[in-house]
Amino acid sequence: MLRVVFIASLLLVLSECSSAKWDANWEDTVAGVPDAKDIAMFDKKERNGICYWQGGFWCSPGNECDDGYRYVASSRQNAYNEWAGDAGAFCWFGERWLCCESDKVKKNPKTSCTHGGGQNCGAGKTLIWWASWNEENLCCEDGTIVP
């Protein structure tokens, strides 16, 4: 009986999908499903400042930051950086990288930065990014990134 229900459901879905391509207003029938234009918008690298989030919609940053940029840190959270803006939604599979202009990164982030919690880093540290979902943050020694 379960097979019959499954096959009937599958046929219904396939028939809806195949008929949608002939409908002039098919986009209205699949509302809420991201199309290539939506995905391209999420994958667009916003360079409003000296950094950007690498990874976009799929949370898959690839192998390295773009030429002229250096890896600073990664996050699975909806993190915010003052130079790169919002990272986007939580990454269930993968992570996003924060990449900053190489000449602005003055210290090694692997040794001068630590993960913590909250919006305050303490004396001698600068808040690099903060995630509101779980209060996770990245704090680096002052002078690590100089805008």
From TrEMBL:
InterPro entries: CPG4-like. This is Uncharacterized protein. It comes from Pristionchus pacificus (Parasitic nematode worm). The gene is WBGene00094640.
